[in-house]
Amino acid sequence: VPEKRYLFTPGPTPVPPKVLAALAEPVIHHRGPDFKIVYRRCLDRLHEVFRTEGDVLLYTASGTGAMESAVANLCSPGDRVLTVSAGYFGERFAKIGRAYGCAVEELRYEWGESPSADDLASRLDELGGAHAVLLTHSETSTGVVADVHALAAAAKEAGALVVVDAISSLGAVPLETDAWGIDVVASGSQKALMTPPGLAMASVSQAAWEASRRSSSPRMYFDWETTREAQSRLDAPFTPAVSLVVALDVALGILLEEGLEAAFARHVRLGRACREGAKAMGLELFSPDDDRSAVVTAIRAPEGVDADELVLALRDRFGVTLAPGQGVLKGRVFRIGHIGYYDVFDVTTALAAVELGLAEAGADIERGVAVTRALDAYEEAARV
Amino acid sequence: VPEKRYLFTPGPTPVPPKVLAALAEPVIHHRGPDFKIVYRRCLDRLHEVFRTEGDVLLYTASGTGAMESAVANLCSPGDRVLTVSAGYFGERFAKIGRAYGCAVEELRYEWGESPSADDLASRLDELGGAHAVLLTHSETSTGVVADVHALAAAAKEAGALVVVDAISSLGAVPLETDAWGIDVVASGSQKALMTPPGLAMASVSQAAWEASRRSSSPRMYFDWETTREAQSRLDAPFTPAVSLVVALDVALGILLEEGLEAAFARHVRLGRACREGAKAMGLELFSPDDDRSAVVTAIRAPEGVDADELVLALRDRFGVTLAPGQGVLKGRVFRIGHIGYYDVFDVTTALAAVELGLAEAGADIERGVAVTRALDAYEEAARV
Known about the structure:
The structure is a homodimer. With about 375 residues, the first copy, chain A, is α/β, with parallel strands linked by helices. Chain A has helices at about 15-25, 35-50, 65-75, 90-100, 115-125, 150-155, 205-215, 225-230, 240-260, 260-280, 305-320, 345-360, 370-384; strands at about 5, 55-60, 80-85, 105-110, 130-135, 140, 145, 160-165, 185-190, 200-205, 295-300, 320, 325, 335. In chain A, about 45% of the residues lie in helices and about 15% in strands. In chain A, a hairpin with a 4-residue loop joins β6 (about 140) and β7. The model of chain A has no long low-confidence stretch (mean pLDDT about 95). In chain A, the strands form four sheets. Chain A has a seven-stranded mixed β-sheet, sandwiched between helices. A three-stranded antiparallel β-sheet of chain A has the order 11-14-13, with helices on one face. At the A-B interface, α1, α3, α4, α9 and α11 of A face α1, α3, α4, α9 and α11 of B.
């Protein structure tokens, strides 16, 4: 395996050198004045990124912890929740709901389909409403980014609480927590927030706070009020991953200096470059060929190639890590993440490696066109 | 505030440079071959440190998450659990038990007292047994290290499951998970394991597995079986804090190279040095003056000195961070942690700063003796 590695997975994502350097700083005490300065700034920056005036709670956990916190704080056994799922992560929400004894209803699509707000409205109508609707913003397993604005509106219309898994979308594609009336946005540090995994966040609306006071589900570590109360004193109820918080603060500074709108535009261009390059070499996209899906591109393995083997070969031969297919897509697709600390030369490197890997595997692809097409598409997109 | 900082808190603790350097390495994908090598070695090393042949489950969480996992996986609402508490962290266990609807009984001591196995046996006898006994090994708030060997034996004798919070003790003082029949040992990365906070571990005995299959408490993130199944494939159910795992692996390598017995002996000597130095300048210990309490030394603030103000002054004047008193001890004691990546010159630096800080605060202490007495005590201890 080559010494030099390239991380092109949709999470963890590449971490900027300044953020890595922050991780290597001597550890500071989480209750001392040094940490409080960083903690306050980090929480303020999270509010900006979440686009909310409400609370943003910070957990030491994988992003799934923030998803679970939503169910544990909002729901009691027997509460009807409706999950909208079209892939691996939508199904995870349903699993969490069932683990907490909720009456889980699923609006289920084939993996790779895009959920529709009309379907959601009809389903909620049939059900006579739901306590909460659990949505996946960016379905990392398929590359689909759902129209959460429209979906949230349909759920609100039916009187449901709206919970959004924005783990791979926050900071990459537009998400308006307050303006779209989303009650809980769950996210994680390791995607567009350009920090290693280990921190999870949950925004909590006023309506969500009210519901949480009625929830009988047991919880302590993920209890919202426990964390809110501590954060109000710039404290944490349990020793937080201080190094990751210090790193996240630096990363959020980089993101906000670029500007959220500029970051969103960059991700659109990266997505376009990746799709156009892949198509140019004759590959078939699995994820939708539209600008909404700007987070990860899922590509079908060509005839006679096992996607898992391709992923392993690229890593062994070139030090390039792509993501394999998950669940029903295992072996059938490979995925190129283009999230966070990422520019067009990351796209071209990923495509160049795929081109060479597929050629070595004997696949029938067009050589010598993908990289240039990707560069062109990136530039064209900037002019639109 | 001086640029150079000294971290002498009982968690987070100082992190060795090699471990900090590992944190700054580019992030790797948690499902790729690079990570699996590290992950396997790290899990193997955890088994050595826990001294168990059973499962050790690794969570991205504060140590409290591992404590909660024990209650969530072992207990159903109404189950009687007995917590033995003599400080802040023992009380946390009771809180978790209540959050999960357990019938929590408390064997409660004054903060700073050492729990006794006879008391535990009598209490269990009175109660007619308990489903689980929740113990704190090192009560970081008071400096007391409980005789978990004897306490666990009393609990087993009464047929209870034994759960031990070993967050600040594991790797610093002897703990024999299997030999002492402990069903669950909960720990964290940020104490004697010399890694920043953010990883929690729980060992699970055969009896604990059996009990977990009968527990009706809802859980997903902290569900043991979910993590065990993934770990058996060298996978993690949710994106783990890869950087912290890489760092923990390096830190465990350092600890095991020193050897656990040598590390335990070093902590005993550090504790003796700290206590002897503090007493030499005329200070009164709050934590017991015995070799068992080798993790953190709690010292009473002298007449007329507020311990919280002393802690802040030492940080502002000298960049030295000690820990203030918690709960009922707030303002009354300060605490010097001597855990993990720590040698006798850390003790003498802490004592020198305390000496100067107290002198500046006008306290009536003996100058010029603490450091030398600490050095002597450290050497004498080695000869015993």
